[in-house]
Amino acid sequence: MCDVWYTGTKRLTASQRARLTASGLSVHHVPLIETRLTHNQMPISQFDWLVVTSQTAVPALRDVPRDVKVAAVGEKTKQALETVGFTVALMPETFTGEALFRDLATVVKADEVVLFARGDLANTAHMAKLENVHDWVVYETIGRELTETEVEALEGIEALLVLSPSAVHALTPYLDHFHGTWYAIGEVTERAVREVSTLPVRVPECYTMDALIQCIGEDFS
């Protein structure tokens, strides 16, 4: 069995873990970050569009009217929004914030107001594509240090599954101990990896957890 670290905050589903195990992988859940709601008030009360680039933001949207138009970054975020009563009007083909704001810029009217509900580390440069967009930080991301035992274990890990630049940054102090392959969920996380590491990086064509699992499963089968 090859040892793999899955570094996401949420646990893998039973089917996801089973697929990895079936590929000869011993999966260890080592979350590197945690998120906390900020409980910041909405900066505006009237708006036409709500933009959400992570399912982590969804619990903070309890008081947001359900009749606004919603733009979601990808399938998991879309599902989380729909579960609490929102209707998603726009989702890009490529599941990135850049693609989402690019698509939004083609449909948002000049007089429409946009509210961007995000984490504290989200890229805000894409907001410049819209004329009337308001920023709402609804959660913060906190990294953690590895234990001494985890640092030692990292020496024998053959693959790291990373789902965000934040996870990559949390691992950066320990990169001398890792000699395997990175599996990044999308191009934004891939860029973060390449900034700090020269080791191989694999990225699935579709930026979803299931696609990432398929990618690593095919490599190790």
UniProtKB/TrEMBL annotation:
Q: Name one GO molecular function term.
A: uroporphyrinogen-III synthase activity
What region holds the Tetrapyrrole biosynthesis uroporphyrinogen III synthase domain? 18-214
Q: Which UniProt keywords apply?
A: Lyase, Porphyrin biosynthesis
* Pathway(s) this gene product operates in, as recorded in its UniProt entry: Porphyrin-containing compound metabolism; protoporphyrin-IX biosynthesis; coproporphyrinogen-III from 5-aminolevulinate: step 3/4
Which enzyme class, named as a word? lyase
Which Pfam families does the entry link to?
Answer: HEM4
Read off the InterPro entries from this record.
Answer: 4pyrrol_syn_uPrphyn_synt_sf, 4pyrrol_synth_uPrphyn_synth, UROS/Hem4
Q: What is its EC number?
A: 4.2.1.75
Catalysed reactions, as listed in the record? hydroxymethylbilane = uroporphyrinogen III + H2O
State what this protein does.
Answer: Catalyzes cyclization of the linear tetrapyrrole, hydroxymethylbilane, to the macrocyclic uroporphyrinogen III.
Protein family: Belongs to the uroporphyrinogen-III synthase family.
Its name, as the record gives it, is Uroporphyrinogen-III synthase
